Structure formats: structure tokens, C-alpha cells
Amino acid sequence: MMATDREAAQPRNVNRSPEYAPLLQVEGLRKHFTVTRGFPKRETVTVRAVDGVSFSIAPGEALGLVGESGCGKSTAARALLRLIEPDAGRVLYRGQDVTAARGGDLRALRQRMQIVFQDPYSSLDPRQTIGSALIEPLRLHGIARGPAARDRAAALLEEVGLPPSALDRFPHEFSGGQRQRIGIARALTVEPELIVADEPVSALDVSVQAQVLLLLRDLQRRRGLSFLFVSHDLSVVRWFCDRVAVMYLGRIIEEGPVDRVLRDPLHPYARVLRDASPVPDPALRGALPRLTGELPSAASPPRGCHFHPRCPRALPVCATAYPGWTATGQGGVACHLHGPGTPAA
After folding, report:
1. What are the pLDDT digits (tens) for 197-246?
2. Distance from C-alpha of 254 to C-alpha of 248, rounded to nearest angstrom
3. Does residue 249 contact residue 318 with C-beta atoms inside 8 Å?
4. Distance of CA 289 to the CA centre of its chain
5. How many CB atoms lie within 10 A of CB 97?
6. Closest Cα to residue 54, out of 16, 25, 34?
7. Are 306 and 251 in contact (CB under 8 A)?
């Protein structure tokens, strides 16, 4: 499916002109956690899960947020929605500060931004019928009540490929793929403009993944949705997204158009991540990249560039100073190899 439908998956008239107004703009988002570890002597440490993340999403655009497990992708996604409270930074939705919103203003903003969770088995209340799960947000946001709300919920189920009879059934009566469709329908109840998809297909079989991705693409086109698509699967991101941001230990280290970043990544870590991604014919890959050293902890990241202890192309400056952000056309990279005055290798 990924290769066959590639032509149909071209960008959807996304406005990337210099003067474009982003739908969502994240500036310096930070979320640290305090944890206690060690035995028998206990110590308290700070885990820098998200440590100054910035990006923007244009209307109708899909931005992929990628990186290995534990890099902070899901924490960043939940913090920008304020499902967990960020420690610092700003999140602007159409110019309105989400991080400063309270009460009715925050509820109105959340109506415009919704999330589809990773695990379809735990994201639905097992004691609540599907109809109740879909009608409740309609009632809370004053969109529809009574028979009108039930009719609207039934129409949403049909839109995601499920029969209206599912309204009176419980989550345990559905497969994982069907539950994820229900989660998508629930996100659509309040007519959002932005969907945060947090690993939406990683828990599904490959054939079901394709069906759900095609559904999301169809919904994006018909409804004009924007997406923050969190994933560790680069093949899915390459097919679905317009741009991609690569995270490592809580920070974005490269961002740009998905075809450029995955074809010719600038940051050594982005290249390693790309080369380690499965390909249809392993004989075409060649030797896998080799990294030295252990993955650092977000509780005690290395001084300088966080990747330098494992980087095969590290410079002396990498061990002492974190690289600044260097703009590269429609994106950028945080790497001393591509900084001002440094020729690209």
C-alpha cells in the first residue's frame, strides 16, 4: 500500500510561503519530570523529557514527529494539548496562547485540537457504550443533544467505516482496528482542525494499519485536517506526512520536507535512524550503521551535543557546546557539521 498509493499521497496544497500564518506554533516547549531512583540509597533526579521543542504546522499539513522510544515524542504531543502541563514554552493556536488559556477559552481551544491515542484497547472506557462515548463530547460542547446527537454519532461511525448499530455495543465487542476507528470518530465529534495522532497504527496488524492510514488520509482531504503525526515508523511517516521533525533526547535535531530529510538527512543521528528503518529488499540496504556507546539517559544527558558520544563524525566542539539551529530552506538542523562557517561534509 505504501508504494502503490504514493502518487495519491502528495502534499495537499499546503501553504509554505514565507508569510504563511501557521495553524499551530510551538515555541520552546519544555517538560521535566522529577523521579526517585536507586537502591538502597535513593536519589531524586530530573528527567528532561522535552527540553525546548519548537515547530509549526500549516493549515492542511501533516508534520511527522519521529525518534526512537523514550525521546520525548508523546510527551511533547500531550504537553502541547495540555493533557499534561508543560513547564515552559508557548503553544499558539491561530495566534492564541494555549498555555495561558483557562476555563471556557481552554475548552474552546480543545474543541479545535483533538488526539487519537496509541492503544485502542485502553483509550475507550470498557463500561461505556460507543454511543455514549461519541454523544458525550457533543453534549459537553453544546453541539447536539437528544436524537440529533445520536444521529450525528451514527453518521460519524459511518464516516469511519462502521455501522450505526455499533452505537449500542461496548468496546470489547470490537477488534483493535475497529476500536481505533471509534477513537478517530470520537476525535471528530467536535469538528477539530488539528488531530494529534500519537502512534495511531503501531498497535495494529500491518493490513489494518494500511486501512486506518487510508482512512486518515481520506478524512484529511475531505475535512481539511492538519496532523501532528507521532511515530517511530519512518515508512509510515514518509507516506503520510509533508514534513518531518527528528527528536533525540528531548530536542528536535533536524526538521524539513519529508522527502528531503529521509532521502538526504543532514544530522548524523537522522541518517542512522533512516538507515536502520526496514526496507522491502534488505539486499539494497548494505551494511547497517554502527553506533558506539550506550543510549544516554534523559536524566543526565551528555554535555555539548547529546549525540556526540555515539556520533561517528563528532568534532571536538561537539563535546563542549550544544549546536545552534541552522536554517536549511524549509527546515533546519542542530549540528556543528552544518553550522555557520562550517562546510557541509
Report:
1. 999 998 888 889 999 999 999 999 999 999 999 998 999 999 999 999 99
2. 9
3. no
4. 25
5. 13
6. 25
7. yes
Residue corresponding to grid cell 540509597 = 41
The rounded radius of gyration (Å) of the Cα atoms in the chain is: 21
Is residue 196 within 8 Å of residue 113, measured between CB atoms?
A: yes
Question: What mean pLDDT do residues 267-271 have?
Answer: 94
Q: pTM score > 0.85 for this model? A: yes
How many angstroms separate the CA atoms of 153 and 237, rounded?
Answer: 30
pLDDT one-digit tens code per residue, 111-131? 999 999 998 889 999 999 999
pLDDT at 10 over 70: no
Locate the domains of the chain by residue range: 7-248
CB atoms within 10 A of CB 74: 20
Residue 51 to residue 31: CA distance in whole angstroms: 6
Q: Please state, in angstroms and rounded to a whole number, the distance separating the CA atoms of residues 219 and 39.
A: 50
Domain 7-248 falls in which CATH fold? Rossmann fold (3.40.50)
Distance (Å) of CA 213 to CA 112, 180, 181: 21, 11, 10
